[in-house]
Each structure stands twice: as structure tokens, then as C-alpha cells.
Amino acid sequence: MKKVFVTRPIPENGIKMLKDKGFEVVVNDAAKDRAATKEELLSGVKGADAVLSILTDKIDAEIMEVGLPTLKIIANYAVGYDNLDIKGAKERNILVTNTPGVLTEAVAEHTFALLLAVAKRIPEADKFARAGNYHAWGPELLLGTDVAEKNLGIVGLGRIGSEVARHAYNGFNMKILYTDPKPNPEFEKTFNATYVDTIDNLLPQCDFVSIHVPLMDSTRHLINDERLHKMKPTAYLINTSRGPIVDEAALAKALKEGTIKGAALDVFEFEPAINEDLKKLDNAVITPHIASGTMKTRAKMAELAAANIIEVLEGRTPANLVQ
Ligand code: GLV
Ligand code: GLV
After folding, report:
1. pLDDT digits (tens, 9 = 90+) for 50-87
2. Are 50 and 15 in contact (CB under 8 A)?
């Protein structure tokens, strides 16, 4: 019987798909509200034909080695796959898949929720009102920033970046600027968007900057102290991609010193830890990596990850091959 190891509990529909195929499905239930431990991963991967991994769980070469010779596929339950050693998988002929597409809308919506929350100071205002501080309507009480017709800079024009641009253009008539390794003339035509060749040229032009690149060596600390100083002091940074793309200590300092106006983050450099200075700042809006977290999307991610495993274990090519 083929064995599938699921590193942490996922929505039941994905588990059911795997069980319906007659696979033995071992779910690491102990890791419901935390990352799997290395010991759990090492013991779970032993004799497994497939691993369904969660982004909190780092699958390195040592763990892959323990999965040999049975392990054929690691199906990540995420679009990002920086938690997996891709080179190590390749060297061991282990296929890797992700879950693109199904979470695009949810993440783009959350990106926009964050953008609006920081511009309109929603968490700060909520806290203010609940604390009993609202004594009278005031002409200058908790003033926010307009979003309409402002310049939005998209860093990385993949599916999610494009969807954020669509909301911004159709919903708020924002001016879209974007940077990406290559220009996309069709996107430019549809959203009246402007290609900017480098992030350094993009940043000074934007009122809002939203990050949509994957985490790789080349994107680690893409937003650092120097680049934060290239942004306008009135600008906001939104990050729903991966935490280490932003130098979090530099960001906390920039927010404190007024180098930029605000930031809204769903991801953190040392996740699940969040920079202590950042947590104290009213001009930082913080959510705990929940951008794809709608019931529909998480169920679709489970379905896709399970489908990728089924394809491989039945000898076909999976739809979402990363390598
Ligand atoms: C979530 O962060 C994902 O990569 O799907
Ligand atoms: C994610 O799917 C992206 O391409 O941004």
C-alpha cells in the first residue's frame, strides 16, 4: 500500500481524495497549531511514497534521504516553496509540486484589505474606539490617506501581482506601475500600466508598493534600508509574499523614523516571531500569514496538493510541477 505522509492537518477533502485511492494516509495530527518538528518529519517520511508538506515545515536533504528509496513526490500545500530544498529533491529524483492559481484571488483580496487597512488606519481606529477614546467627531481625528488615483507599484507581476493590479485599477482607478524581469505589453494595455525597469526606479514613484515575488537568494532583503529610503515619506509598503524579502529590522526603524508612512504585513522575516519594535508601531498593520486563508481556498489547495500526489503515484505527470 502506498503511504502518504501529511506533515500537518489540512482540510479533510484532500485527505479523503488520497484515502479514496486506497493510499495509507498518515497525518501528523500533533502539529495542529505549530510547525512539525524535525523528529516528526524524519519519522513520518520513512517509507513514504509521497509527502504533503505545509510551508512551516522545512524539508531538507537529510529528511529527503530518509524517504528514499520510496519517496517520489513532495506536494507543497502553498504556492511558495522556499521551505523545500529544490536542488536536494532534484538530485534524488523526487518531484516537487505547489498549489498555484487557486489562491490568487484570496491573496489579492487580502493584499487589498491590508492596503486599505493601513491607509485608513483601521486597526488603530478600532483600538481607539474600543478603548473609550471617542468623545466627539473631529475634523482631524485619525486622518487617513486617499487610495484613489494614487500610484501603486507592483513588485513581481505573477498571478497575484496582476490580480492586485486589477483590483487597484478597476476598483480604485489607481495608476499601476510594475517591475518584473520582463515587460508584459498585454497587461500594460489592459490596466494602463507602466513598466519600470528596476525596483530602484520604481520605489521613488509610488504611493503604495506591494511585493509579489517568490523568496529566492536574489530576493532576500530586496527591501532593505537603502531601498526604504528611496520610497516617498508618504508611501506605504504591503507584503503578502514572504517575510525575508523585507529586512524587518530596517523596516521597523523606517516606520519609527518616518522614512515611510506605514506598512502592512502578512509575512515576517523570522516567522512566527514578529519584530518587537514593529509590534509596538501604530503605522504597522499585522496579520499572521493568513492571506490565502479562506475556507474555499484552503479546500482547493488541499484538493490540488492531493491531485498532484495522485498523478505521480499513478504514474502520470502532475499539473503543478515545480521541478
Ligand atoms: C502561502 O504563503 C503560499 O505560498 O501559498
Ligand atoms: C502566484 O501564483 C504568483 O504568480 O504571484
Report:
1. 999 999 999 999 999 999 999 999 999 999 999 999 99
2. no
Whole-angstrom distance, CA of residue 225 vs CA of residue 247: 7
Give residue for cell 490540488.
304
Give the integer Cα–Cα distance in Å for 177 and 202.
7
For ligand 1, atom 1, the nearest C-alpha belongs to 78
Q: Is 117 left (phi over 0), alpha (psi -120 to 50) or beta?
A: alpha
Q: Closest Cα to residue 223, out of 209, 234, 235?
A: 209
In percent, the amount of the chain with pLDDT more than 70 equals 100
Domains and CATH numbers, the chain: 3-100+295-313 (3.40.50.720), 104-286 (3.40.50.720)
Q: For residue 158, report the distance from its CA to the centre of ligand 2, in Å.
A: 4
Longest Cα separation, the chain: 70
> Residue 271 — φ and ψ, nearest 5°?
-50, 135
Dihedral angle computed from the Cα positions of residues 8, 11, 17 and 19, in that order, rounded to the nearest 10 degrees = 50
- Report the distance separating Cα 256 and Cα 86, nearest Å: 38
CA of 57 to the centre of ligand 1 (A): 12
